[in-house]
Amino acid sequence: MLEQLLANVEIFPLMGVPLNEKNTMKMDFSPSNHKLIEIDLSSTALFDRYVFGLLNSSRKQYGIGGYFEHRAIYQRSKVFATAVEDFRDIHLGVDIWTKAGHPVYTPIDGAIHSFQDNVGFGNYGPTIIMEHKLGNKLLYSLYGHLQRVDLANLTVGKKFKKGDLLCHVGEFPENGDWPAHLHFQLMWDMMGNVGDFPGVCSHREQEKYRLICPNPHFIIGY
């Protein structure tokens, strides 16, 4: 459905430049990446060193991945802690790992739905949610792990054209205490949420969220 609605829509590159094999590498944070076992993920500094060590060694500016990825990195935070059968470790968006301060642009026309600073270790930190009209459908886009200053001049309903500067990739600890990256996620339904939306779900909830959270790669383009 999303691909059809976007068929005739011009999309501006989220990071200002197209992501491709020359500047971007795919990153794996699933249990199959055994290197993660060797890292103390509770230390953001060590986690950051691992992420940017990969980028530097590959000579890439961006790392990307994560849509419906089963992840092995959420044990680092109590934000995701629930009963074992409901532990949330299925990632619902796409992460773009790059240096803090990198600008993020509005990919398609939209308006601010809501925003807030989701504070806490392992949380989103500063977060913006936009609302986009695609024909008769509403699509929501979430931008997480931002700079706190990005929220300063926002108002609900403020309009942005595609290509407008929206925000910046935040640095830890103000970005929720993660290595610098943008969490980008799409939703058809906000489910009553304001300024926040689940970025991960449990295995039991996968099919529910697959219907709500379409693949962001249709907008990212890579």
UniProtKB/TrEMBL annotation:
Domain of life: Bacteria
Pfam families xrefs: Peptidase_M23 (PF01551)
InterPro entries: Cell_wall_metabolism_enzyme, Dup_hybrid_motif, M23ase_b-sheet_dom
Domain (M23ase beta-sheet core) ranges: 90-188
PANTHER family referenced in this protein's UniProt entry, alphabetically: MUREIN HYDROLASE ACTIVATOR ENVC, PEPTIDASE-RELATED
Name recorded for this polypeptide: Peptidoglycan DD-metalloendopeptidase family protein
Organism of origin: Belliella filtrata
